[in-house]
Each structure stands twice: as structure tokens, then as C-alpha cells.
Design goal:
The complex is a heterodimer of chains A (143) and B (257). Chain A is α+β, with helices and mostly antiparallel strands and 143 residues long. Chain A has four helices and three strands. Chain A has helices at residues 7-11, 48-65, 70-81, 93-113, and strands at 16-23, 118-120, 130-136. A three-stranded antiparallel sheet of chain A has the order 1-3-2. The longest helix of chain A is centred in the C-terminal third of the chain and has 21 residues, at 93-113. The radius of gyration of chain A is 18 Å and the shape is elongated. Chain B has 257 residues and is an alpha+beta fold. Chain B is 46% helix and 15% strand. In chain B, the strands form four sheets. Chain B has a three-stranded antiparallel sheet, with no helix packed on it. A three-stranded antiparallel sheet of chain B has the order 4-5-6. The longest helix of chain B has 31 residues, at 201-231. Chain B is elongated and about 85 Å long. Classes of the chains: A alpha+beta (143), B alpha+beta (257). At the A-B interface, helix 1, helix 4 and strand 3 of A face helix 1, helix 3, helix 4, strand 4 and helix 5 of B.
Chain lengths: 143, 257
């Protein structure tokens, strides 16, 4: 596991001060939602509102992915009738939204979190169990 | 979840890293990055550059495939010509479609990731350990840890997995044959040579359903064949003796199904 070329290994260059793990929020059932409680370790690094906005957006995206609408119904029926061979040609609605999530996290990291010495890990890398927030040592001289 | 490692990277130098470590960082990028499947900790085997995943032992998957192919082969070779002549040309068409369905579903079930959860990173495992009281000595394995959570106002106990070092989400189980935690784990099917879990349940189900249809269809066709032959003036026993003795194959498939 230490040999995988992961962003975390690269980040070892900038010393990791701590990691915060945001767990899943099961109060509304087994739908994929994460707890939006603001962790105390991030108080000095980022504004509560900004962080909660990111989490809210992520929760909304996951809710959209698991939504059962007419599109997912048609997709399911078509897949069933073709012995799921259509999935070799096209992506499911869920996969499309997961790609949106990855892009969103990338964007947030670039614009908001990296300048503050933080890094959000895409929860899919952890099996949609936790959102890992890596806190780097604050070496920035200009803030 | 078996993604490759290609994605956009943020330049760590944006965090004002010292020049020495920046140089070793440049050296590291020259090293070939290893794919996740190459360093996978479970017992699965990977083929086709990580696109195909199998359990450590293929179980009786070759036998399953063999039985299906041989049965259908015999059906197409011996029953179809007779039935096409006497009934309709759609018999082999339907049989062929069902056969294709069965084989595709079987291969998809066998070769797809059943919903394996990646093991907790060392940092996460340490974080979880911190949150649990460890009052026993290090040599004695503590009793299974459970965590209670509320799902829709109902208390559910989450068990701790000692191999994967995490609290398993609801309906997740650890498969000892594959050495992975699998989401919505149903069972490890030796016929298919893989676990059946959240991500390949739909393929497994369509395999079972289409196989039932296929075997019923072949059974019906065979009965029709024998009946038609015996109606042509010969007795039932004689007509069975006439067409090749392939019925043991059919009966075994039905029993297994």
C-alpha cells in the first residue's frame, strides 16, 4: 500500500500535521451522506461556512447519484434486457455523478483547500466510508 | 473502486517546500507508479491490466462453464435440426439468445468486483484505535469491538474488522476466502468463483434467472422432441435409444440449478 503512487505519498514532502476523518451520517438511512459537523482541528485553517458548503454540495451530489428517477429506471430496464452488455458501451448515471464528484473535489482542492494547507481525499478512494482531510504543517509565510 | 492512479496532481511546491525535498520529489516522479491492483492486499487475482478480478481459487467456474457449453452444444447439434424441421426456426434462435445471456451474466458475475471495500489506511486505523478504549494488554486480543449507530432512529451495531482495521458499514461482511470486506455481502459462490455482493448482485441474479429459463427451455424442447419421435410410430423407449444418450447431462444441469 505504501508503494502506490498516491497523492498522499507525494504529500509526504510537505509534512502532514494531522488527519481528520469525517464519518458517514446514517440518520436518514443508508443513503450516502457525510456528517457535516465542523471538526475542531480545522478551526484555525478554514472558515466553518466554507467547509460546510463543500460538504453540503458533496452530500447533494451523492443524493443525486442515488436518486431513482425515470432515467435510472430506463437504464435498468435496458440493461436487464441486454444482459447488461450496454454497460460496456455507456456509463451508468451513478458513475457519471461520481465523476462529477471527483471533478468538484479536485476543483475545491485547487481553489480553496491547497492554499490553506489542506487536502480533501475523494471518499470513493476509501470506499465511501470517510472523507479524509489531511492537514499539512503551516509553512506559509504570507497569509 | 479498482481505479488506476491517473489523475491531476496538485503541485506540492505550492506549499513552499524546501528545495532539497523538491529535488527528491522530482526523482520520485521518474519511478514507475504501481497500480492499485498490483499492491492489492486481498487474495484476489487480476488479469487484463486490472480489468478482470477473480477470487484466489477459481472454484468450479470452469466446470460451470463446461456444463453449460456442453449441454447447449448437444442441444443445438441434435435437438435443433429435428425441431426446426418439425416445428419452427425460432427454437434455436431463442435457445441461442438465452445461451448468450447466461454466459454473459456468468462471466460478468465472475469477473466483476463484488463491492470490495479498500482496507483502512494506517492513519485511519490509528485514528479509530485512539477512539476506542484499549485497556487490555497488547498480547491478548480484545473482544470484538462494536459501535452503535442510529439508522432512521433504530440502533444498529457495526462490527470491527480486525483484518481491514475498520468498522464495517451496515450489511458488510468479511469474506475469509477472498480476505476482503464486501459491501452487502451475500455469499461466496464457488460455482461462479467469486463473492456475490453489492456490485455484482444484479449480474448474479440475471445469471440465475436466465439459467433457469435456459434449462426449462431445453427441457421442454427435449420432451417435445422425444414425444414427436414416439408419435411417428415408435415407442418411447425406442426413441430415447435413437437420439444419443445425452440426457444425463440435462438431468445433472437441472439438479444443479
Amino acid at each position: 500500500m505504501a508503494e502506490t503512487h498516491s497523492l498522499q505519498d507525494m504529500r509526504q514532502q510537505a509534512a502532514v500535521a494531522a488527519k481528520v476523518f469525517l464519518q458517514r451520517d446514517y440518520t436518514n438511512g443508508t443513503v450516502c451522506q457525510f456528517q457535516t459537523k465542523f471538526p475542531s482541528e480545522l478551526e484555525t485553517r478554514i472558515e466553518k461556512q466554507q467547509f460546510e458548503e463543500t460538504l453540503r454540495m458533496l452530500n447533494n451530489l451523492y443524493a443525486e447519484a442515488e436518486k431513482l428517477g425515470s432515467q435510472s429506471y430506463i437504464e435498468g430496464c435496458l440493461a436487464c434486457l441486454t444482459a447488461y452488455t450496454v454497460f460496456l458501451c455507456m456509463e451508468t448515471h451513478y458513475e457519471k455523478v461520481l465523476k462529477k464528484v471527483a471533478k468538484y473535489i479536485q476543483e475545491q482542492n485547487d481553489k480553496i483547500y491547497a492554499p490553506r494547507g489542506l487536502l480533501l481525499t475523494d471518499p470513493i478512494e476509501r470506499g465511501l466510508r470517510v472523507i479524509e482531510v489531511t492537514i499539512f504543517e503551516d509553512r506559509s509565510l504570507t497569509r | 473502486m479498482m481505479k488506476n492512479c491517473e489523475y491531476q496532481q496538485i503541485d506540492p511546491r505550492a506549499l513552499s517546500v524546501s528545495p532539497l525535498s523538491a529535488q527528491s520529489h522530482a526523482e520520485k516522479t521518474v519511478q514507475r507508479c504501481r497500480r492499485k491492483w498490483e499492491v492489492f492486499p486481498g487474495k484476489n487475482r487480476f488479469f487484463c491490466d486490472g480489468r478482470i478480478i477473480l477470487a484466489s481459487q477459481s472454484g468450479v467456474l470452469p466446470l460451470t462453464l463446461g456444463l453449460i457449453v456442453v449441454t447447449c452444444g448437444l442441444f443445438f447439434a441434435f435437438d435443433c435440426p429435428f425441431l426446426v424441421k418439425h416445428l419452427t426456426v425460432f427454437i434455436p434462435v431463442i435457445g441461442g439468445t438465452l445461451f448468450v445471456f447466461v454466459v454473459f451474466s456468468l462471466l460478468r458475475t465472475s469477473f466483476t468486483d463484488p463491492g470490495i471495500l479498500p482496507r483502512a489506511t494506517p492513519d485511519e486505523a490509528a485514528d479509530i484505535e485512539k477512539q476506542i478504549d484499549t485497556s487490555g494488554s497488547s498480547t491478548y486480543r480484545p473482544p470484538p469491538r462494536t459501535k452503535e449507530i442510529l439508522i432512521n432512529q433504530q440502533v444498529v451495531k457495526l462490527k470491527y474488522c480486525f483484518t481491514c482495521k475498520m468498522f464495517r458499514p451496515p450489511r458488510t461482511s468479511h469474506c475469509s476466502l477472498c480476505d476482503n470486506c464486501v459491501e452487502r455481502f451475500d455469499h461466496h459462490c464457488p460455482w461462479v468463483g467469486n463473492c456475490v455482493g453489492k456490485r455484482n448482485y444484479r449480474f448474479f441474479y440475471s445469471f440465475i434467472i436466465s439459467l433457469s429459463f435456459l434449462t426449462s427451455f431445453i427441457f421442454g424442447c427435449v420432451i417435445t422432441h422425444i414425444t414427436l419421435r414416439s408419435q411417428e410410430g415408435k415407442s418411447l423407449v425406442q426413441s430415447i435409444q435413437e437420439s444419443p444418450a445425452r440426457y444425463p447431462y440435462y438431468t445433472s444441469i437441472h439438479i444443479i440449478c
